[in-house]
Amino acid sequence: MDIQVSKLREDFTDKHYLITTSDNIILFLRAWEPPKKSNKAILILHGIAAYSGPYEIMGKNLSKLDYTVFGLDLRGHGLSDGKRGDYPSRKRLIMDLTET
């Protein structure tokens, strides 16, 4: 089954960012922002075969405590590009996090 995540992203209306990595993969980054600008941030990373969506309740609640919260869909997961469920290497994961 060929999943077209780019089509799924078109329907997503909540605050998010699309980050293009150095190897041209688009990573999907959800954002839950506090009412006032904050210099405190949290990055939520999901587990294997998951995505950032289930962390929405946590993200919204932490944003009420004055944190800017981000939830990253790792490559091949959720609304990010890449081979579904792929985990290319630890080095690539670190590069993706650095580029995010």
Automatic annotation (TrEMBL):
Name one matching Pfam family.
Answer: Hydrolase_4
Cited InterPro entries:
AB_hydrolase_fold, Hydrolase_4, MAG_DAG_Lipase
Record-annotated Serine aminopeptidase S33 domain positions = 37-99
Q: What is this protein called?
A: Serine aminopeptidase S33 domain-containing protein
- Source species: marine sediment metagenome
